[in-house]
Prior knowledge:
Layout: E1 3-5, H1 11-22, E2 30-34, H2 37-42, E3 49-52, E4 70-73, H3 82-96, E5 100-105, H4 117-130, E6 134-139, H5 147-156, E7 158-161, H6 173-185, E8 192-196, H7 204-215, E9 220-223, H8 226-235, H9 240-254, H10 264-269, H11 276-285
Parallel strand pairs: 1-2, 1-4, 2-3, 4-5, 5-6, 6-8, 7-9
Helix pairs in contact: 1-6, 3-4, 7-11, 8-9
Pfam family, one: NAD_binding_10
Domain NAD(P)-binding: 7-181
Protein name: NAD(P)-dependent oxidoreductase
Amino acid sequence: MSLVVTGATGQLGRLVITNLLARGVDPAEIVAAGRNTEKVAALEGLGVRTAVIDFADPSTLASVFGRGDTVLLVSGSDLGGRVEQHQNVIDAAKAAGVSRIVYTSAPRADSTDLILAPEHKATEEYLRASGAPFTILRNNWYTENYAQTLTQAEATGVYAASTGEGRVASASRHDYAEAAAVSLITDGLEGRTFELSGDTAWNGTEFAATLAEVLGRDVRFESLSTEAHTAALLAAGLDEGTAGFVAGLDANIAAGALDKSSDDLSTLIGRPTTPAVDTLRELARS
């Protein structure tokens, strides 16, 4: 029986593997699976077994899963094509007789208006209907998503967004990866859905103050309307689709879609989640 980590060449998947190893899992029990052949080969240095897979090609999946395996299905990055790709993984894993599928989903996926949620909701529904044992990890926002914001604030002294007074309960990628590792090696989590979010939810004004603390300069929060934000994004060179997506996400935040939902994350990892200021400091150093 193995622990199969899909998306192992991505930032989250790689961190899940390092967390498993840090928790004493035998590298020989881990299968690191990903699409990029060179990046997959590079993981062999960790002592883990590797496999090249493509969610869109079911023929690459059948031989990766074995009876009794626990599989981490890291949601794919192909927006618009993820539901079918996730279904391919679920079908192959179920056919192989895996013991459980752990899926990384979106916050409140079955009830939110979050622009990113529909594909996750559809995947959750398919997973539940498949009959395969499952655990669902609904990851909130990653603080690392604000790396570019940090750079912009350093240059301009402004954090501009159309989030209003909405709050974001972000946590570090490492926090979410550790939760995934714990979920893979912990018994009794079948049928459980965890709403994972940071311990502290911040609004735009508070985030600007955090940016100022990290950068050592004044940073003010410029609260924009959705229309003004879209116009600014277009003026900055974004295409209409991307500008609409970014502004739409901010509208979701303003409506509370990424606010704190539970203490599941800190409970799973057995420690407080990483404060945004610590993650931003690490980003600034790098």
